[in-house]
Amino acid sequence: MVELNFEKLNGLVPAVAQDIETGEVLMVAFMNRQAWEKTLSTGKATYYSRSRNTLWTKGLTSGNVQIVKEIRIDCDDDTVLLKVQQVGGAACHTGHRSCFHKIYADGHLVIKDKPVFDPKEVYK
Q1: How far is CA 14 from the centre of its chain?
Q2: Total number of domains in the chain
Q3: What b-and-e string marks burial along 99-124, b requiring 16 or more CB atoms within 10 Å of the CB?
Q4: Is position 123 within any domain?
Q5: Is the C-alpha dihedral spanning 55, 61, 62, 63 positive or negative?
Q6: Which residues, in sequence order, are bridge partners of residue 110?
Q7: Is the pTM higher than 0.85?
Q8: What is the mean pLDDT of the chain?
Q9: Residue 5 in domain
Q10: What is the pLDDT of residue 2?
Q11: What is the pLDDT of residues 71-101, one digit of tens each?
């Protein structure tokens, strides 16, 4: 098994989720050792929620699952790139396809896309 360096960020490594087809960056989250191992064993992206202090498999509530197609590890073994198939069309908890749906232009933020789903309905 690949051994990641979980020591630099107190047991966590950044994890970037990228659409395998389009190359679009969908989100950035964190993994602890348990999330890493669950991702490897299930083939579904699993992260560690710092705010809730728990594991979360992407899409268990919303249905917007990330199926891992390829995993890349950076040169220092402390960052993960997950190339995923984004099932359900949205990676962001706000309902947008990507968490990076805000564009900075001329001193303002512009929202790129409309949400794919209503988070108030999904996360009751």
Answers
A1: 9
A2: 1
A3: bebeeeeeeeeeeeeeebbeeeeeee
A4: no
A5: positive
A6: 103
A7: yes
A8: 95
A9: no
A10: 77
A11: 999 999 999 999 999 999 999 999 999 999 9
